[in-house]
Fold:
Amino acid sequence: MKESTTYQAILEEGEAVGFEKGLTKGLSVGLSEGLSLGRVEEVRRLILLMGEPRLGLVNATVRADLERRTLPDLEALALRLHQSETWVELLSE
Structure:
């Protein structure tokens, strides 16, 4: 999956959007922290973007769970996304 052109294009787009968000937030919270926040937001956005077609629409509980996760947690979820059948399964692993 990681080798697919679609996956790579989504990652590239996500990095660009995350970088822009990070720079914007960086002006108010410090550049390093802003870049980190932008990266977290973008990984979360990609999980939702790639997960909804496979796992269904996201409810408030799932969204709140994703909001609480750290970057390493979100990256682990992204790697397991293609193995899960439901949001509950993905988030409980």
